[in-house]
C-alpha cells in the first residue's frame, strides 16, 4: 500500500508543459525498461510525477508504453496542485487516471516506473538524494525511476535512471541536427549534477572529453550527424564506462554509468 500522508510532499512546479516534450525520454524508457514491465505479475503501473499544468505528458506516456512496451500498462498522473488534477480529470480513460499528491506517490502498491521530468530543478542540490531515496523506496523490486530535465520543446534531455538500490546511469539525449557540441547539453543536467559542472568534478571532465571526442570525429560529419555521434561514443568508451543499449546511439542518446559521474563528496 502507498504510505499515508496528511498532505502531499513537495512544492508545485511552474507547470510548463508541451505536447511531445518528453518523447525522447519515453522512447528510451520503452526500449530499455520494456522487459521489466512485461515481467510484472499484473498490469504494470507507471507514474507521471509532476506532469504540470496540462496532462499531455501522461496521455503520451500511456500511448507509448502500451504500444512499445506492454499493452497492459496503466499510467497515473500525480500532481501536487489540486487545480491541475481537476483540470486533467476529463482526460481520464481506460488505463489513465490522475491523483493529487507528491513525492509520497499516492498509488496502491509499488509502481513499475516513476518518471519525474523537470520536477527537481527548483529544489536545492542537497535535497535531491532524500527525494531520490523516497521515490526509489516506492518502486517495485524490478522498478525504475527516471529523473531529469529537458528543454521546452524536447530537443535536449539529460536524465538519471535509478533502481530501488539507487542511481544507475546518466543518459544524454539530443536531436543531433541541432547540436553544435555535446557540452551544449550541460544546461539540461539534472539538479544532482548541474552545479557540479566545474573543474575537478567528474561530470565536468566527462563533458570536456565528450567535446574533444566530438571534435576528433568531425571527419564523420560528411556521413551525417548520426555517424559522427556514433564515432564520438567509440572514442569516449576508451576512457568512460558507457552502457550499450542496443540501437540507442542511433537515436541521439548516450548513456554512462552513474558511478563515473557521481559528484565528489564534500
UniProtKB/TrEMBL annotation:
<keyword id="KW-0808">Transferase</keyword>
<keyword id="KW-0489">Methyltransferase</keyword>
<dbReference type="InterPro" id="IPR029063">
    <property type="entry name" value="SAM-dependent_MTases_sf"/>
</dbReference>
<dbReference type="GO" id="GO:0032259">
    <property type="term" value="P:methylation"/>
</dbReference>
<dbReference type="GO" id="GO:0008168">
    <property type="term" value="F:methyltransferase activity"/>
</dbReference>
<protein>
    <submittedName>
        <fullName>Class I SAM-dependent methyltransferase</fullName>
    </submittedName>
</protein>
Amino acid at each position: 500500500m502507498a504510505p499515508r500522508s496528511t498532505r502531499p510532499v513537495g512544492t508545485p512546479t511552474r507547470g510548463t508543459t508541451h505536447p511531445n516534450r518528453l518523447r525522447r525520454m519515453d522512447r528510451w524508457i520503452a526500449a530499455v525498461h520494456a522487459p521489466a514491465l512485461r515481467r510484472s505479475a499484473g498490469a504494470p503501473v507507471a507514474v507521471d510525477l509532476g506532469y504540470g499544468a496540462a496532462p499531455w505528458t501522461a496521455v503520451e506516456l500511456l500511448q507509448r508504453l502500451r504500444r512499445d512496451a506492454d499493452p497492459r500498462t496503466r499510467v497515473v498522473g500525480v500532481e501536487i496542485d489540486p487545480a491541475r488534477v481537476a483540470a486533467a480529470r476529463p482526460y481520464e480513460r481506460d488505463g489513465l487516471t490522475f491523483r493529487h499528491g507528491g513525492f509520497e506517490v499516492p498509488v496502491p502498491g509499488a509502481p513499475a516506473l516513476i518518471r519525474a521530468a523537470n520536477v527537481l530543478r527548483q529544489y536545492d542540490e542537497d535535497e535531491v538524494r532524500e527525494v531520490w531515496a523516497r521515490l526509489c523506496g516506492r518502486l517495485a523490486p524490478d522498478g525504475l525511476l527516471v529523473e531529469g530535465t529537458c528543454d521546452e520543446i524536447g530537443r535536449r534531455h539529460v536524465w538519471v535512471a535509478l533502481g530501488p538500490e539507487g542511481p544507475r546511469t546518466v543518459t544524454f539525449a539530443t536531436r543531433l541536427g541541432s547540436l553544435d557540441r555535446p557540452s551544449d547539453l550541460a544546461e539540461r543536467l539534472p539538479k544532482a549534477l548541474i552545479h557540479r559542472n566545474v573543474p575537478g568534478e567528474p561530470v565536468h571532465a566527462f563533458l570536456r572529453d565528450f567535446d574533444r571526442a566530438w571534435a576528433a570525429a568531425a571527419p564523420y560529419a560528411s556521413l551525417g550527424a548520426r555517424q559522427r555521434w556514433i564515432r564520438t561514443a567509440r572514442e569516449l568508451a576508451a576512457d568512460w564506462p558507457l552502457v550499450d543499449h542496443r540501437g540507442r546511439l542511433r537515436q541521439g542518446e548516450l548513456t554512462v554509468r552513474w558511478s563515473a559521474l557521481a559528484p565528489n563528496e564534500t
